[in-house]
Structure formats: C-alpha cells, structure tokens
Amino acid sequence: MNKLYVVGIGPGNRENMTFSAVNALKDSDIIIGYNTYIDLIKDLIGGKQVVSNGMRKEVDRCKEAIELASKGNTVSVVSSGDAGVYGMAGLILEIISKEYSMSDFDVQIIPGVTAGNSSAAILGAPLMHDYVTISLSDWLTKWETIENRIHCAGKGDFIVVLYNPKSKSRTEYINKTQEILLQYKSPDTPVGIVRSAFREDQSVQISTLGELSNCDVDMFSTVIIGNSKTYINGKYIITPRGYSI
Amino acid sequence: MNKLYVVGIGPGNRENMTFSAVNALKDSDIIIGYNTYIDLIKDLIGGKQVVSNGMRKEVDRCKEAIELASKGNTVSVVSSGDAGVYGMAGLILEIISKEYSMSDFDVQIIPGVTAGNSSAAILGAPLMHDYVTISLSDWLTKWETIENRIHCAGKGDFIVVLYNPKSKSRTEYINKTQEILLQYKSPDTPVGIVRSAFREDQSVQISTLGELSNCDVDMFSTVIIGNSKTYINGKYIITPRGYSI
C-alpha cells in the first residue's frame, strides 16, 4: 500500500508539534513542502530526500507527492498549523479522488495545532466561545463570498479568526472587514494580532476593532476579533465562557 | 513567580499531544483536571499530586489550581483538545483577573489539537474552507444565542463544527440544528460524526444533513457538517479549497 502522510507541523517550533507529526516525518523517505515550512523542520529531516518549492505551487507539490508515493516511497507532505485547515489535506485527497484510486493509498492526516489556536494561546483566552475562521485571500474564493461570511460572523456575535489577512497585493480587505464588523460590533471590541506565533520573530499587538486599520498586519499575521463579552486585562484578551465566579 | 500551566492535551492519546504539553506536565508539582482527562494522561503523571473531580466543577477546580499555585506550587490544569476552546484557559484568567493580581502569576497557555481538528483528520479534509465552531450546550449560553448563530452559519455557507451536540438532558438541540441548517443547506450535505477521536473506542459515521437525526450522537461526539461544495469519496469527506486540478 502506498503510504502518504499529510502532516500538520503546528506553528513552527518543535515544542508545539505533536509526537505523531514527528513520527510521521521520521517514518518517511521523502518530505515535501513549501520552502518556509521545510526550513522550520530542517533539524528533523536530515538525510531524507526533500522536495520544496514556492508559494502557489500547491497543486504541483501534491501531484508530485502522490506520484512519488505511488512508486513505493513513504511520503510526508507538510503544512504549517493543521494540514486540514487551509492546508494540503484536501488537495491530496481531491487529486487522488480524481486521478487515482483511493484504495491504492494509505493516507494518514496528522492533525496539528492551528495558527488560530497558537495565536489564541499567546493572547490569553480569546476563543473561549463560538468562533468563525475566515481566510481573507480571494485567490481561490470570490470576495463576495468572503464578504457575506464576514457579515454573518458579525450578525452571529461570533469571535472571528482571520487567516491571510493581508498580502502585498491585497491590502484593502482587512479594512473592509473592519468596516463590515463595525456594523455589528463595538469599536471597543478587543483585537489581538499575532505574527509568527511561537517562532523566533513572534510579535503581538493588542488593540481594538476601531483601531484595527492602524495596526501592523501582514501575511504572517493571524487576527482575532472578540465577541460582545470579550475584554482585555493587561497583556491578555479574555472571552468569558459564561461561568459565575 | 507563581507558575500555572493551562494545558491542552489534544484528543487524548499520547501521540497527538504536543511536546510542550508533556513538558508542562513533567515540570508540574500538581496536576488538576476532570476525572476523564486525568485518566487519559495517567501514564504521564505517576508520583505527582493529582486533584481531579467531576463535570460542572470547573470553577472549583480552577480556584483550587490558582490557590495551590499561589502557595508556590507549579500547577498544570488540563483540558482535552485545546485549553483555549471551551476549555479552562479562560476561567483561569477570569478568576485571576477578578480575585488576584495578574502580575503575581506566570500563566502559560499550552495550545493543543482541538476536537474539531482531530475529528476532521479522521474524516479526511472537511475543514478546508471557512468554518464555524458552535457548542450546543445551553448550560452557559442561552439557546436563542445558539440558534441565531446556527442561522448565521447557514446563511454564510460555512462548514459547521458542533461541540457538545447532545447530552442526556439535551436531546433535541441536534434535531433543531438540523432543521435550521436545512433552511440553507441541501439534505445531501455531507456530515461526519466522530466519537472519541483517537481513543480506543473511536467510532466514525459518515452521513448527510438530511439523515443527521437518524445518526448516533452523544456527548463524546463531534459533528462536522459540510458547505455547499463538500463531497464524500469512499471513507473521506472532502471540502475543496478551490484549486483547479
């Protein structure tokens, strides 16, 4: 059986990887991933064959992984965070569904700590209640769909986790998101922005929805916006679960 | 400085814990948690003082943890999944905010693999696009709030992850959720139900939204309901991210 691991490596430091993720890498002949992620785990893959390439090469990367696995190699495809959240798990299964027979492969998805959960841990406890996760990238999703989801998130008083909040070519969506959410949420709603969570260059900003457009946000940032009960205490953002204390 | 870890232990098996979680437990004098979770990690805590108690004792448990830490003990409070998602991270910070001085404590939140992410990995790749996480427990949240959020999740064509879908005293909310989502989603929408993910008694059901009321769901289950593009292939549920393949 052709063995293919799709491995969520968590935020990027060894400490926040799972034992399963490390074991999958150790068990593999070939490791495949985006350059940046391969760099994060390079101490774990010494001596193994590595296939890495740049952004937006996801389809090529997954096709190559499946092809190499079909030749009898044990292959790991790595994603940062959780491989099942905007990661490579879906694409691997989509390609096998379309071009191969699913029964020829033993695909194991290894879950990991998401960027949202890592960022939340650094910020305190903002995700203690119902939340939505939305990517602001319009590369694979129409902006109208994203915009509708932001409205729904606002109407539902959800905590909001934003992935891909900004890139060099998409600078305005974060401001549009702020405008939409201000229709439903107070400008005082706490906002936390974590860049490069648990990596050497980690940085944290604690602000409010009203001030979000004045914050530094880039493609390495995760943005968490509270619900109507979220508050800030010192360096922490806290969303009450509802207990009487 | 009084040291307090709030540790997400992931789904419950050692392999899906992070190194940070294991290190925090090893570094602690006292481990505190709900009986079921303490049982899951008992091989890691031999020889340490353990304080465990039953469901709905969360406030007592956290107050005791903080009190023990304030006396100079290093204490770990454990939650299953991620401590920051319906876990103990918020309550610990809330109680310290209210009754102590935050600056007297070194609180470290250790993120973990959530029940949603574990279940998704077992089901294939259902969470590959924007999703909401909703708890159906009305113990701490009014049903009207939950109901509104389910409507918003439906209107936004989000993938939906349901925590606490059913208990002995709350048997109807999962059926109400089905009814509401059927106003927005097709009855053919794939549904995956994972019980006790990655534990010895793990079980998996793959079904559809139209059939959800006929599925076995209990308090140990996580339910994932797809978006309009989600499909089933064999034993996998796949939500396309939008790549052309």
TrEMBL record, chains A, B:
<dbReference type="InterPro" id="IPR051810">
    <property type="entry name" value="Precorrin_MeTrfase"/>
</dbReference>
<dbReference type="GO" id="GO:0009236">
    <property type="term" value="P:cobalamin biosynthetic process"/>
</dbReference>
<keyword id="KW-0169">Cobalamin biosynthesis</keyword>
<keyword id="KW-0489">Methyltransferase</keyword>
<dbReference type="InterPro" id="IPR000878">
    <property type="entry name" value="4pyrrol_Mease"/>
</dbReference>
<dbReference type="InterPro" id="IPR014776">
    <property type="entry name" value="4pyrrole_Mease_sub2"/>
</dbReference>
<dbReference type="Pfam" id="PF00590">
    <property type="entry name" value="TP_methylase"/>
</dbReference>
<keyword id="KW-0949">S-adenosyl-L-methionine</keyword>
<dbReference type="InterPro" id="IPR014777">
    <property type="entry name" value="4pyrrole_Mease_sub1"/>
</dbReference>
<keyword id="KW-0808">Transferase</keyword>
<dbReference type="GO" id="GO:0008168">
    <property type="term" value="F:methyltransferase activity"/>
</dbReference>
<dbReference type="InterPro" id="IPR035996">
    <property type="entry name" value="4pyrrol_Methylase_sf"/>
</dbReference>
<dbReference type="InterPro" id="IPR006363">
    <property type="entry name" value="Cbl_synth_CobJ/CibH_dom"/>
</dbReference>
<protein>
    <submittedName>
        <fullName>Cobalt-precorrin 3 C17-methyltransferase</fullName>
    </submittedName>
</protein>
<dbReference type="GO" id="GO:0032259">
    <property type="term" value="P:methylation"/>
</dbReference>
<comment type="pathway">
    <text>Cofactor biosynthesis; adenosylcobalamin biosynthesis.</text>
</comment>
<feature type="domain" description="Tetrapyrrole methylase">
    <location>
        <begin position="3"/>
        <end position="212"/>
    </location>
</feature>
